[in-house]
Amino acid sequence: MKPAFYVTTPIYYVNDVPHIGHAYTTLAADVLARYKRLKGFDVFFLTGTDEHGQKVEKAATAAGETPLELADRVMKRFQSLWEKLEISHTDFIRTTQERHKKGVSVLFERVMEKGDIYLGEYEDWYCTPCETFWTETQLIDYKCPDCNRPTEKLKEESYFFRMSKYQDALLAHIEANPDFIQPKSRRNEIISFVKEGLRDLSVSRTTFSWGIPVPGNDKHVVYVWFDALTNYITALGYPEEGGNFDKYWPCDVHLIGKDILRFHTVYWPTFLMAAGLPIPKRVFAHGWWTVEGQKMSKSLQNVVEPNMLVDKYGVDAVRYFLLREVPFGLDGDFSHQALVHRINSDLANDLGNLLNRSTAMLGKYFGGVLQTPGEETELDKAYREKTAAMIGQVDNFIEEMAFSRALQAIWEVISAGNKYIDETAPWTLAKDPEQRERLSTVMYYMLESQRVVYTLLSAFMPKTAQKGLCCLGWPEEASAEGLAWGGLKPGTTIAKAEALFPRIEEKAE
Ligand code: ME8
């Protein structure tokens, strides 16, 4: 039986079209999912769309559509982008689906039956874009402290969740599980927030109707965050026992942006505690992308559209760039110039060139037929050991969600490959008939190390990895077994590789 692994992305609002921020989280989740599959895990990878709430209702009105028409239209844009980016999700959940609505009602009812949801009255300052209530003291000049937009005072009958009751239990959980909230800076932020005291949380609305009705009182709709967070279990079939829910819950990691950390590490775990359900093992909040130094926004017209990037640079270049450029967890800045630079230096020069020159040499010296390697020298040994060490390093880095460091570790072996060629100088060996065996060994090490490199790269750049492996006479899919040294069989014919990544003129950008 394969061990289970469950990874999720946020479910994205349908009032906005997908941009690189959404692509980023989803790509990271995809790399993790592909990597875990490679390592033999049974992976459930969930993404989807968040379709209820006032924000969506307002956007639909503005577009002259019903909320569901808007959701149907925008949801397809997310799905087609995921296809284009080669996202390998297991399921795509929409909060308007019956399976989800049923699960949310049951969860709400169960918490209510327990006495942890009660009817009260609410009066506070509401930020519509953030769907969040604030106390007067939290406001900055009567504006939302998160987004700096105006808030309005709302009074309504509301159901409340007794979040205050779970303050100590949550704090104890965070303290007992140092990996629950990552990175560490985010964990500290949440610890301080919880220590300041948790208020009961309003979990229903009466001022609009686009949502899931509160069980037994359809004047109210369930608060959009109670609704949305529950997707992580309704997609597994909750409330049904057995099946996927038992297999995959609690989740191994919720990947999110830092903007929605509090919802995932305060609200969500306390809802689950109240329902008597296990808490996710880990929540990892990555950093924020700006564009050429500025916040991405519709009004600045600087939103980077991932479809356009893929059309222009290719899917794997985009996948590589987003995960390589910025340490996961830190903020990053997008620029075409940086992307083109990465393509030219890392992909065309280092990676592509190594494959190209090594397969060309095999063609020239041995008619493209891989020879049995001879005795191993110190130089060969160092190169083989560096290749083997990379496997463990990548594993550790991916475990820490340090995707850019994992790629760096892979690139160190690629650079070592280029250096190995320079040091062994196959062109000199080729001139000496006495050195045929030595030349065979060099060729074998050069190509075999790359086979291991492409096997690991399959998590990051699936198409390129497949091309590379195929080129190296390895027609099988990348697998954990393929990480062992010695996979390439002498006698295999290896043709000269085409350029994997053509260079891009930097000036033109
Ligand atoms: O918050 N940089 O949906 P959302 C990096 N529906 N990541 C970014 C980003 C940026 N500039 N912009 C967006 C919601 N993201 C809720 C979630 S989950 C139960 C409900 C990514 O459409 C990042 O993952 O506003 C962020 O957390 C998410 O998109 C917000 O997506």
> Strand arrangement, largest sheet?
3-2-1-12-13-7
Radius of gyration: 26 Å
Number of strands: 15
Overall outline: elongated
In what range is the share of β-strand residues? 5-15%
- Main sheet makeup: 6 strands, parallel
Spatial separation of the terminal alpha carbons: 50 Å
Helix content: 40-55%
Unreliable segments of 5+ consecutive residues: none
Ligand catalogue? ligand ME8
Number of contiguous helices: 18
Q: Kindly report the average pLDDT value.
A: 95
Helix/strand class: alpha/beta
Keywords: Aminoacyl-tRNA synthetase, ATP-binding, Cytoplasm, Ligase, Metal-binding, Nucleotide-binding, Protein biosynthesis, Zinc
Domain Methionyl-tRNA synthetase anticodon-binding: 374-507
Motif ('KMSKS' region): 295-299
EC number: 6.1.1.10
Describe this structure in words.
- It is a single chain.
- By secondary structure, the chain is α/β, with parallel strands linked by helices.
- 48% of the residues lie in helices and 15% in strands.
- It has 18 helices and 15 strands.
- It has a 6-stranded parallel β-sheet, with helices on both faces. Strands 5-4-6-8 form a 4-stranded antiparallel β-sheet. The protein has a 3-stranded antiparallel β-sheet with strand order 9-11-10.
- Helix 12 (315-325) crosses helix 13 and helix 17 (436-457) packs antiparallel against helix 18.
- The mean pLDDT is 95.
- The structure holds ligand ME8.
- Residues 10-13, 16, 21-22, 24-25, 50, 228-229, 231, 256-257, 259-260, 288-289, 296 line the site of ligand ME8.
